[in-house]
C-alpha cells in the first residue's frame, strides 16, 4: 500500500503562485512514477505533469512554462510549483503514484481556487 497526502492548496488571485506538496508513505520503493492531476466539476481527472523513478519529467502543453514538477527523495515528497495562475486553473488537484504492477494510488486532493 502507498499513502499520499497533498498540501499547499488554497485561494490566490490571478497571476499568483502556489506550491503543492505530496508526501508519500508506505511501500514507496514500488512506485515507478508520480504525477499531478486536476479535476473540475463534471470533467474527468486530467494529467498535468509526471516524473518517473528515473527522473523523466513530462507536462501537458497547457501548463508548460507555468507549472514545474519536482521531487525530494529524502522527504518522499513531490511538488508542483504553479505560477501565473489563471481562474481556469481552479480545480481540485490530486497527487498520483503508479505502482510497477500498474495499480494507481491517489491522494485525497487539494483545492486550488484562482480569482480574477
Brief synopsis:
The chain has about 120 residues and is an all-beta fold. The protein has strands at about 1-5, 10-15, 20-25, 30-40, 45-50, 55-60, 65-70, 75-80, 90-100, 105, 110-115.
Describe the structure.
Helices cover 0% and strands 59% of the residues. The chain contains no helices and 11 strands. A hairpin with a 6-residue loop joins strand 4 (31-39) and strand 5 (46-52). The termini are far apart.
Topology:
Elements: E1 2-7, E2 10-13, E3 18-26, E4 31-39, E5 46-52, E6 57-59, E7 67-72, E8 77-82, E9 91-99, E10 104-106, E11 110-115
Parallel strand pairs: 2-11
Antiparallel strand pairs: 1-3, 3-8, 4-5, 4-9, 5-6, 7-8, 9-10, 9-11
> What percentage of the residues does DSSP assign to strands (E)?
over 45%
How would you state the average pLDDT, rounded?
96
Helix content: under 10%
Number of strands: 11
Helix count, DSSP H or I runs of 4 or more residues: 0
First and last CA, distance: 40 Å
Structural class: mainly beta
Order of helices and strands: EEEEEEEEEEE
What is the radius of gyration computed over CA atoms, rounded to a whole number of angstroms? 13 Å
Shape: globular
The main pleated sheet reads as: 7 strands, mixed
Which spans of ≥5 residues are poorly predicted at pLDDT below 50? Answer: none
